[in-house]
Amino acid sequence: MKHIPGVLKFLAAFVLLAWVAACASSWQGTRDMAVAAGFQVITPTTAEQKALLPTLPEGRITQINHDGKIFYVLPDVANNQAYVGGPAQYQAFQQLRIARQISNDNLAAAQMNQMNQMNWGMWGGWGAPAWRGPGGFGY
User: Fold this and answer.
1) Distance of alpha carbon 122 from its chain centroid, rounded?
2) Distance between alpha carbon 16 and the CA centroid of its chain, in Å?
3) What are 108-126's pLDDT values in tens digits?
4) Alpha carbon 48 to chain centroid distance?
5) pTM metric for this prediction
6) Could you write out the three-class secondary structure of 24-42?
7) Given this model, what pLDDT does residue 57 score?
8) CA–CA distance, 126 with 139 (Å, rounded to integer)
9) Whose CA is closest to 40, among 90, 77, 78?
10) CA angle, 10 as apex, 7 and 14 as ends, to 5°?
11) What HEC string does the chain produce?
12) Angle of CA points 109, 114, 116, to nearest 5°
């Protein structure tokens, strides 16, 4: 019985680590798509840029209007830089994001189809005993 708290702590640490890895992977994927869409990596040089960077939501692209032009900015505060693109680059980013979502959906559907095609009958279903009518459960 003393092992249960240790196992729970290990399981909680594992789940936390997996969650952090998933978040980092998501951020890396967003950055990669921004670069693939043509966003440029910019290091803030003016006081205005340096002040604006930490106020932008991390991991999200924000529309900025500057001198009558529209820019889309993905901040990377940890590295003191931003990924900046115009309307054409943002459109390309959106298309890449949709294509990735479709790809993920197709992969999930293929995995579900594969699971459905497996013969679970030889294992007795999901491990529950089969119901044998009024006589009760049977194996």
Assistant:
1) 36
2) 15
3) 888 887 777 766 555 555 5
4) 31
5) 0.59
6) HHHHHHHHHHHHHCCCEEE
7) 93
8) 13
9) 90
10) 135
11) CCHHHHHHHHHHHHHHHHHHHHHHHHHHHHHHHHHHCCCEEECCCCHHHHHHHHHCCCCCCEEEEECCEEEEEEEEHHHCEEEEECHHHHHHHHHHHHHHHHHHHHHHHHHHHHHHHCCCHHHCCCCCCEECHHHCEEC
12) 95
Residue 75 is which amino acid? Answer: P
Residues 6 or more apart in contact with residue 87 via CB below 8 angstroms: 70, 72
Question: Would you state the structure tokens that stand for residue 38, as one six-digit string?
Answer: 């043509």
Summarised one tens digit per residue, pLDDT across range 90-101 is 999 999 999 989
Domain ranges of the chain: 28-107
